[in-house]
């Protein structure tokens, strides 16, 4: 029995209608008995329902923590031992007290709950990536008459992720400006257009808008460098979004801007595809080396990349559950 955010949308507490509906649904099923309950946070109410159903049905309950509820460093600048987090930790301890295991989505979440609940089995399971046929999509890249294409796909979070440092690097070097086109796919591209004008890169930057997912993957496959923009703040070191997995599966050069010493950078480095750069000169040097053919043949760590496929990560989760059911 899987309880996820698709079923519940209450962030705090539990809505009686959801509790009543789910319990009635479970009671109405006569010819099927679930072997386990997997409740995914967020919302926190999914854990409460999972706990109640576990007792009612007398079956094991596993908590999948996509974020750390009592202290989320991605959104909080406070320390782990702040007063508010300690209050939440007490309620969280009640929710997790009888669970058979915790499935953690990142290394920070894994270490956080190991420290709080050392007696509860805990396994880090990444979201991973899905395999797909790249021949399905149609490439939409615009080379703009340049030799190489850098591609970014996805949201820029209303400016919290910015390509400005990349634009500075390219605009300051004639050779880079003559050789690189930069394609952006996705929403929220007004800032990109303004920055391209600011740095006189209108003939280098193409904003393509939103496109079909398969077309996007094919466009990334046909690009030379994949651009991964992170937010320029300390909290970003804890963020591991699905984007990093979606990029490494293509086994292309990854230019990651910001996110130094983050878990996301560690994944990119271990994949053999790139690392985070945080200043204009380092980006300029990287792009110039690429032009001289030094960085074009990436040393992809195929074994590591394959281990992060969703299929393999789910296999790890199944093994963990079977060991603790």
Structure notes:
- The protein has 13 helices and 11 strands.
- The chain has helices spanning 16-28, 45-57, 83-96, 107-116, 164-171, 174-179, 190-198, 213-221, 242-248, 263-271, 280-291, 302-307, 310-324; strands at 2-3, 36-41, 60-65, 101-104, 122-124, 148-153, 180-185, 205-209, 225-229, 253-257, 274-277.
- Strand 1, helix 1 (16-28) and strand 2 form a beta-alpha-beta unit.
- Residues 6-14 have low confidence and may be disordered.
Category from helices, strands and their pairing: alpha/beta
Please indicate the percent range of residues in DSSP E strands (runs of 2 or more).
15-25%
Largest sheet: 6 strands, parallel
Point out poorly predicted stretches. Answer: 6-14
Give the strand order of the largest sheet, numbering strands 1, 2, ... along the chain. Answer: 8-7-6-9-10-11
Q: Total strand count, please?
A: 11
Helical content (DSSP H or I, runs of 4+): 40-55%
Shape type? elongated
As a whole number of angstroms, the C-alpha radius of gyration is 23 Å
